[in-house]
Amino acid sequence: MPIETLATFVMASALLSLAPGPDNLFVLVQSALYGRKSGVLITLGLCSGLIAHTAAVSLGVAALLQASPLAFDLLKLLGACYLLWLAWQAFRASASSLDAGESYALSAMTLYRRGIIMNITNPKVSIFFLAFLPQFAVPEAGDFALQMLLLGGVFMIVALVIFSIIALLAGSLGEWLRKAPKAQVVLNRIAGMVFLALAIKLTYATVS
What we know:
By secondary structure, the chain is mostly helical. Helix content is about 80%, strand content about 0%.
């Protein structure tokens, strides 16, 4: 896989991991209220859950590519449409509440298990991977399924690093976001631009 493609993927993954969403806000709140360990455990659970989505998407898309290149192109166009919808959602998103949602600390295993369940049971993650990963894979560069697994693994590592940083800086970040809710809006707008750029790139690569 070309190093420039991998570098672009890492940057896009980092920006999308930073954009305020249910997962990283949950990590932020739990860390701020109950300590950094809680946030790191949730992060480990969330990233563990990504393994299932990565495997399912990688094997499914690889099989589809082998069966029908036309169907694969249609899948990429559908992925571009989904990315456009995500961009629209990000552009219109407002600041999220940083309330705890729970008044008690959870045990270590409960936090880790909750992270896994939150991720695995969220169909949007599979849909997102289905739209996001294929555009960075190059069928001519080798085994397509292995490339997808590699990209999924890289995304997990990036998310683990970003979410862990959020957990470690939870107190300062939480206070900053409470005092400056517009910061969440700005981060969402950045995510929207990333989604829009990815959709355009995916559409251009499909029709050209």
